[in-house]
């Protein structure tokens, strides 16, 4: 069982964050054997398919290259020009083959682990130069698998090569009796066929290596239970830190709420258990809005701040409980409470007019009824 540096067994499957981090570092499953097999197999098939055209182009290039004009014999630069032309012609002739091989190399590289580019993977690591670490890798399970693959490739490729030569020896010898063009085409076909036969043996190696690389990659990413717990704390936050953040957020929300109490038009109380602060502006609001509310200690603070700023406080237990239960902070009051709150605000505005020396002193409304569906039972015991 794999262990980490602390000696703990890595028994847990890698988390999604662990997988994402490993991909960012360029640590993805890769199979060199799959890449080698695909390149050689497709390269051989490409040679077989292009053998006719390659033979014609090569014959023409050799014919032109070995035909020397009398003028060129006396030109010192003719040899370099012919060499440059021959190289350019060869590159153009082999360009389709190279493009096929490059495309196959890229496709086979990303077929297993997908596209993953990381600058961290390109950075030099001095730990790779440590001979002790190298010996550990050499005698590890992965090192033994690599040794097995190397020996298997040696016997398979060597046996396939010997078989191909034994089967095609007569055809290779027969090339000497052909003209240059047909001989080149036939040679390309024979070489391509041999490559296909030889590279086909690598399919067996790839079939073993691909599952092993997937298993080994997953094994390396496995985590201990402590690592899973630590990662969970990092991603979701430590409980004590989250609790502290929630407390701070609650305190900030309470402070902001208490700052709105002096701006309220009226405070409706239970009278001690509940307190709700309402504000209404007929020009900007479609209905009265709850700007502060609370129970017990918070309710007491709301009443205290309201008293310090001369905000009217009206005792209406049923209405206070209904607003507190059915309207959140910053919400408009429910439509069923419009009539009761309208009577309450009318009293408040008349009271403010009276305090300003206008009109008579209004009486505290006593008929602030609440619809049955919005009524909330009184707490037990209820001083009201």
How would you characterize the overall build of this protein?
It is a single chain. This protein is mainly alpha-helical. It is 64% helix and 5% strand. The chain has a four-stranded mixed beta sheet, with helices on both faces.
Keywords:
384 residues, 14 helices, mainly alpha, four-stranded mixed beta sheet, 64% helix
Show unreliable segments: none
> Would you list the SSEs in sequence order as H and E?
HHHHHHHHHHHEEEHEHH
Q: How big a fraction of the residues is strand?
A: 5-15%
Question: Got a strand count?
Answer: 4
- Strand line-up of the largest beta sheet: 3-2-1-4
Q: Judging from the principal axes of the Cα atoms, what is the shape?
A: elongated
Mean pLDDT, rounded to whole units? Answer: 78
Helix content percent band: 55-70%
Rg, Cα atoms, Å: 43 Å
Q: How many helices?
A: 14
Q: Could you give the distance between the termini?
A: 69 Å
Structural class: mainly alpha
Largest sheet: 4 strands, mixed
């Amino acid at each position: 069982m794999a262990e980490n540096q602390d000696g703990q067994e890595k028994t847990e499957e890698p988390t999604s964050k662990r997988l994402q981090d490993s991909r960012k570092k360029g640590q993805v499953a890769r199979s060199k054997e799959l890449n080698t097999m695909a390149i050689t197999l497709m390269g051989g098939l490409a040679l077989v398919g292009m053998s006719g055209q390659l033979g014609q182009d090569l014959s023409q290039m050799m014919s032109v290259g070995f035909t020397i004009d009398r003028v060129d014999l006396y030109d010192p630069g003719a040899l370099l020009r012919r060499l440059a032309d021959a190289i350019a012609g060869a590159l153009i002739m082999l360009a389709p083959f190279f493009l096929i091989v490059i495309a196959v190399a890229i496709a086979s590289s990303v077929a297993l682990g997908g596209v993953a580019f990381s600058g961290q993977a390109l950075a030099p690591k001095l730990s790779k130069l440590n001979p002790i670490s190298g010996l550990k890798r050499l005698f590890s399970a992965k090192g033994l698998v690599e040794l097995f693959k190397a020996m298997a490739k040696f016997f398979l490729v060597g046996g396939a090569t010997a078989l191909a030569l034994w089967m095609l020896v007569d055809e290779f010898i027969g090339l000497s009796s052909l003209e240059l063009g047909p001989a080149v085409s036939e040679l390309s076909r024979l070489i391509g066929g041999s490559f296909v036969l030889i590279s086909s043996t690598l399919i067996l190696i790839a079939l073993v290596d691909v599952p092993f690389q997937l298993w080994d990659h997953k094994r390396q990413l496995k985590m201990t239970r402590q690592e899973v717990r630590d990662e969970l704390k990092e991603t979701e936050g430590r409980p004590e830190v989250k609790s502290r953040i929630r407390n701070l957020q609650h305190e900030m929300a309470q402070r902001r709420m208490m700052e709105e109490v002096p701006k309220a038009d009226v405070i409706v109380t239970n009278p001690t258990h509940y307190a709700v602060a309402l504000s209404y502006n007929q020009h900007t609001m479609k209905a009265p809005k709850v700007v502060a509310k609370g129970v017990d200690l918070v309710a007491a603070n709301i009443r205290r701040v309201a008293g310090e700023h001369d905000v009217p406080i009206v005792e209406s237990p049923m209405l206070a409980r209904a607003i507190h239960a059915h309207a959140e902070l910053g919400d408009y009051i429910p439509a069923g409470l419009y009539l009761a709150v309208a009577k309450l605000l009318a009293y408040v505005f008349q009271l403010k007019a009276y305090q300003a020396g206008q009109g008579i002193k209004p009486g505290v409304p006593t008929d602030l009824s609440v619809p049955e569906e919005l009524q909330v039972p009184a707490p037990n015991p209820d001083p009201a």
